[in-house]
Structure formats: structure tokens, C-alpha cells
Write a structure and sequence with these properties.
four-stranded antiparallel sheet, 637 residues, 17 helices, globular
Length: 637
């Protein structure tokens, strides 16, 4: 059924490849800053737009006699940026039948501000703010309204309407909702005794569940023989894993796989160019958060069953080493440049950061754990804070780390850059600091690791036209990644210390979510660009961590309620990749360019075909993780 579902997704989305766009010429709404009147020379409507994804064709017609024009543009996603020159438009020969013309491709992902000025750098004749549509064909007509007053009008005409590039997303949503409806119907059939008995005898899921529940990291209590036959959330006679944790991990991982494969080439499935958030910016911190939660439950389980701290610490070091080694040697992005060598080896990376973060947070928990903590019982004067007060040394350590981050970020002198600079450099900040990408964070990486050993194509290079290499998984940002994992560790303590008390667990998740949200609101001033510390995934700013932990606590609350408390949802399909997260992550990176995860496209400039390919690849990894689950194959390091 899962394979058929993947095929259904591919077939439905492929049908969109031939979806026609609007072809009837129509008038655009009067843009801001333009004068009245209309224009458009002959032949403009006949010019077909070049099929370039996220671009439209703009034909500029200059009817001003003896005056050439300079066309420049400013993207709405580029904060405090310089206008970028697009084209020179020659003057008219004095007759409207032979105006000066220039054709340019303009971006359709974000609103643009177009500026027309004299050819010798005169003041702007007009500015037009407009959000162009993909594959649209537009004309911008510049002409004189009044010779005496020298009034100029700039009129935007739609020659050929754009296509609706978001239709593939709607189709994909409907297809997956159809699959969900089929699965719900199948679940209802499972309530029929003969059907349920046949399925149970055929699949025999008990052995798999027994294997999973025997894993370290599953908190438990006792269940008396005379208790209700319905299985409880916690059990010591038969340990039962918290499915909500694996579901949350699997949800984050599934979205991560999708956006890593391209996300249909939609801008909101790519990382934000600098400040702000997109879908792609959500998943890594959630993965780090749930890793911190799992650390607490895993360590408490190992200590409860008699493992010595020395033995546990040895396992922590070994697992961290393997994660870092896999990140450098197996999923290094510089393989696209050819065989790896020290000259082009990227040292930071996702698995490297996960490995180091795991080492610090797990060692911190192991070092300062107290007797009784592994059982969720600690004597404290304030029972309401039993998951916080006994761990004051850990909080001091985290505060010291954050002080170090603040001091390095805002006080470290960076050559050629202002202290505390948090911008992207390039054409940002009006081009005053072109080589200051990332401020102290970028400077530390380039100084300690070398420019050739960090990421060469940061997300800021497209919009802000930065030229300096910058690594979003660099050294300084790792401090706040540790902070994010520590907050996940705190979620694990809540689960451990308030076991069987669902209302207390959910209320504390909610309180933590509110507290983190308030801190984020203060740091960002509830704005994208104007806060004290903007939300920034590239920098892993403090506000980014508090915002993502706000979402994480709330999302974990919701999944915990649905999956483990009310049992309204089994966690499928996200539960399965969550059980094999390392295998799925490394597998999707290694086999990214192999069939059936990727194939040659008929039209590489189609969102529909990219979305079909990326959804199919992601669905296949979910299916693979399910098959591995059924065959009791779990890759742990």
C-alpha cells in the first residue's frame, strides 16, 4: 500500500507539468509610485517569457526622447540593501514607434522595488513596488505626460499572465489527505474482530515491540497484575517506549529530508537568506531538542540498571566520535567537488555538531547527576521545582557558556567590521561591510579552521551577494546548539520526574513554551530585523534557540497528548523514521543522486516535477524505515 501511495503521489503531481498558465493579456493594478496612463508598444505581448523557475520577463520601453534610463531593483527580502543595476535602456528616437527597449529577467520569489533613473546617475524618475509572478511577461512603459512640467509616468502592463506555481502543493496535499483517509478507513476495519485477528496473526507485531521496548531510554514504573488490562504509559514489568519522542524526532527528520532534497525548489522550503524563519529553519533545532530529551532518558535507564558512570562515559565518547567521523568522511558536502582531500575538506557539519553537542550535554548530565535522579526521585525543599533546583551546577555551566557566546559575539574585535555585527555583509547594510558576513562567528571559523575548510556557499550569497565563505554549523553557534539540547534535556527531566502525572507534564511543557516565547519577544521586539538579537539560523542566535524551543515544547506537548496520553494517534508514519534516524539521515545524504530518489527531469524549470521528485524520495525513506521496523532492524551508534 505504501509503494502504491508513492506512485499515486508521483502520478498526480506529474500531471501538473502540462498545466497551462494564464495567457490572456490583462491590466496590472496601478503600482505604487507610478503615474496614471497606459502604454505598451506593439510586439510586447508576443514576446514569450523564458522558462526560468522563479523568474519573469520584463520588457522596459523608454519613450523619453534623448534620455537613456538605468533600471535597478531591490528585493523585499534584502534588508538595508543597495539597489542592484539590471539594465540600461536606450532613449527613444523621438517617435513612439521606435522606443528604446531592454529585456530583463526579474525575481518572482519576493516583492521587488524597481527604480528608474537617468543614465548619468540623476535622481530617480520613478519607483515601482510589485510582486511579479512566475513565468509572467510584463512591460514597463516610461513616457512623458507633460512636456512643460516634465512629468514622467511609469506604467506596468501584464502581457502574459503568470502561472500559479503553488498548485502542485495543493495537489500534493490532496493526494496525501486521500492516503490518510484510506489509512483511517483501514484502522476502522481493524476494529472488526475477524479482520483484526487475521492481521495480528499475519504480522505478529509483539516481537518487534518487545525488541524496541528493551532499548535503553524508556522510562517506566510498575503495573500490577490486577490493574486495568489496557496498557499504561509507564511499566516496569514490561517497559514501554514513549512513542511521542520518536514521533517528534521522525517528524523533524522527515521534513529535514524533504528540504534537503530541494523542497520542490520553493523559497519557503529553503533556508532563510539571513534573519527570519522558513520551514527549512525549523527542523534541525527540533532534532537537537529531542536528542537532549533522549539523552536524559537513556542515561537514567543505564544508571538505573547498574551501569557504572565510567562505562557510560565511554559509550558517550564513542558515540560522539562516530557521529563526528561520519559527518566528516561520509556526508561531507565537498564530495561534489571531487575526491576529498585536506585542501577542500569541510570540517564543520550537521553530524559533527550533533556529535559534539551530544558529548557536552551527555557528559554534563552524567557528571552532575545525583543519587535517585535515575529513578525520578530527588529530595528537594520545593517539590514544584524538583526537576530544576537539584541541577543548579548544570544551569551555572549553561549560563557561563551563554556569557561566553555574548562576549565573543558582541565584544570580539573583527578586522574591518564593527563590534557586535550580526549582519550578512555583501550588499546588506548598504554595502558598508561587504566582507563581514556573520561578524565574530564567521571570523572565528575563518581564523581557526581556515576559509577552505568551511561551507563555501552560504544562503546569504544569493540575496545579499556575499563572497566570504560562512559555515552555519560553525564553532560559535555550537554554544547555542548545546543550549538547545539542554532545554530538551529539561523536557526529559519533566517526563521522568512527573511520570504518570500527565497534567503536570503537559502544564510544565506549556509553561516552558510560554517563558521561551516571552524571552524571544523581548530579544526580537516581535520583528524580523529590528530586534536586539534577530532570529537567525545561520548564527544560531539566542533568540533563534528560544523561539525554536518555544515551538518544540508546544509541539512535544501536543504530540505527547495525542500519542501517549489519549492514544488518538499511533505516531505513524513519522514514528518509523524516528526509530532509525541516523540510518535515514545518512542514507538520504549518501544516496541522494541515485535512482529512485532522483531521476533525469523532462523539465528542470518546473516546480511540479521537482516537488514530485522530492516528495517521492522522502516518501520512499519513510517506507524504508517502516520496512526496517517490521524486520526489527535498528541502526544505533
Amino acid at each position: 500500500m505504501a509503494a502504491a501511495a508513492a506512485g499515486l503521489v508521483a502520478a498526480a503531481l506529474s500531471a501538473l507539468l502540462m498545466a497551462p498558465g494564464l495567457t490572456q493579456p490583462q491590466r496590472a493594478a496601478p503600482p505604487a509610485g507610478s503615474g496614471p496612463g497606459a502604454g505598451g508598444g506593439p510586439g510586447a505581448a508576443e514576446r514569450r517569457p523564458l522558462r526560468r523557475m522563479d523568474q519573469a520577463l520584463l520588457l522596459v520601453r523608454n519613450e523619453l526622447p534623448a534620455q537613456g534610463l538605468r533600471l535597478a531593483a531591490l528585493s523585499g527580502s534584502c534588508h538595508r540593501c543597495l539597489y542592484q543595476f539590471l539594465a540600461f535602456v536606450p532613449p527613444s528616437n523621438g517617435s513612439q514607434t521606435k522606443p528604446g527597449t531592454a529585456a530583463v529577467m526579474v525575481d518572482t520569489q519576493h516583492p521587488l522595488t524597481l527604480q528608474l533613473s537617468g543614465s548619468v546617475g540623476d535622481r530617480a524618475l520613478c519607483k515601482i513596488q510589485y510582486h511579479f509572478g512566475e513565468f509572467g511577461n510584463y512591460s514597463l512603459v516610461v513616457k512623458t505626460l507633460s512636456t512643460s512640467t516634465k512629468t514622467v509616468s511609469c506604467d506596468l502592463i501584464i502581457n502574459e499572465g503568470p502561472i500559479n506555481s503553488y498548485l502542485p502543493i495543493l495537489f500534493a496535499f490532496l493526494v496525501y489527505m486521500g492516503i490518510l483517509a484510506i489509512l483511517i478507513a483501514g484502522r476502522l476495519l481493524m476494529k472488526i474482530d475477524p479482520v483484526r485477528n487475521w492481521v495480528c496473526q499475519t504480522l505478529n507485531p509483539r516481537d518487534t515491540d518487545h525488541l524496541i521496548n528493551s532499548e535503553l531510554g524508556s522510562p517506566h514504573t510498575t503495573d500490577s497484575p490486577s490493574s486495568n488490562p489496557t496498557p499504561r504509559l509507564w511499566s516496569t514489568t514490561s517497559r514501554q517506549r514513549l512513542r511521542s519522542l520518536d514521533t517528534f524526532r521522525g517528524l523533524s527528520l522527515t521534513i529535514m529530508v524533504f528540504v534537503n532534497y530541494g523542497g520542490g525548489k520553493y523559497w519557503f522550503f529553503k533556508h532563510e537568506s539571513w534573519n527570519g524563519l522558513t520551514v527549512a529553519d525549523l527542523v534541525f533545532p527540533w532534532f537537537v531538542f529531542i536528542m537532549g530529551t533522549s539523552i536524559l532518558l537513556s542515561l537514567s535507564s543505564m544508571l538505573r540498571w547498574g551501569s557504572s558512570k565510567q562505562k557510560v562515559f565511554g559509550k558517550i565518547i564513542w558515540r560522539s566520535f562516530l557521529l563526528i567521523l561520519l559527518g566528516i568522511l561520509v556526508v561531507n558536502p565537498n564530495y561534489c567537488l571531487g575526491p576529498l582531500s585536506w585542501d577542500n575538506l569541510r570540517i564543520p557539519g550537521v553530524l559533527q555538531r550533533l556529535g559534539f553537542t551530544y558529548l557536552v550535554v551527555a557528559a554534563l548530565e552524567l557528571l552532575f547527576t545525583r543519587a535517585g535522579a535515575e529513578s525520578g526521585v530527588l529530595e528537594t525543599r520545593c517539590a514544584a521545582l524538583q526537576d530544576i533546583l537539584p541541577y543548579w551546577p548544570q544551569w551555572i555551566f549553561i549560563v557561563v557558556l551563554e556569557v561566553i557566546w555574548f562576549c565573543l559575539t558582541f565584544l570580539l574585535p573583527v578586522p574591518g567590521c564593527p563590534r557586535g555585527y550580526l549582519g550578512p555583509g555583501g550588499i546588506g547594510d548598504f554595502g558598508n561591510y561587504p566582507n563581514c558576513t556573520g561578524g565574530a562567528a564567521g571570523y572565528i571559523d575563518r581564523l581557526l579552521l581556515g576559509e577552505n575548510h568551511i561551507y563555501q556557499h552560504p544562503s546569504s550569497s544569493v540575496v545579499y551577494q556575499t563572497t566570504m565563505p560562512y559555515d552555519p554549523e560553525g564553532i560559535l553557534g555550537t554554544i547555542n546548539t548545546i543550549f538547545m539540547a539542554f532545554l530538551g534535556l529539561q523536557a526529559g527531566k519533566i517526563i521522568l520526574f512527573y511520570k504518570d502525572k500527565h497534567k503536570q507534564i503537559m502544564s510544565r511543557f506549556f509553561i516552558w513554551s510560554i517563558v521561551m516565547g516571552i524571552i524571544s519577544a523581548i530579544l526580537t521586539k516581535c520583528s524580523k530585523e529590528e530586534g536586539f538579537i534577530p532570529i537567525n539560523k545561520n548564527l544560531w542566535s539566542v533568540s533563534y534557540v528560544t523561539t525554536m524551543s518555544c515551538f518544540a515544547f508546544f509541539l512535544l506537548l501536543l504530540i505527547y497528548y495525542l500519542v501517549d496520553v489519549k492514544r488518538l494517534w499511533s505516531g505513524a508514519p513519522f514514528f518509523y523514521p524516528g526509530m532509525n534516524s541516523i540510518l535515514v539521515y545518512i542514507g538520504h545524504e549518501v544516496f541522494e543522486n541515485y535512482f529512485p530518489f532522483k531521476w533525469k527531469m523532462q523539465d528542470s524549470q518546473s516546480h511540479a516535477e521537482h516537488l514530485t521528485q522530492n516528495l517521492t524520495a522522502t516518501t520512499l525513506w519513510v517506507i524504508i524505515s517502516y520496512l526496517l521496523y517490521r524486520r526489527k532492524i535498528f541502526w544505533k551508534i
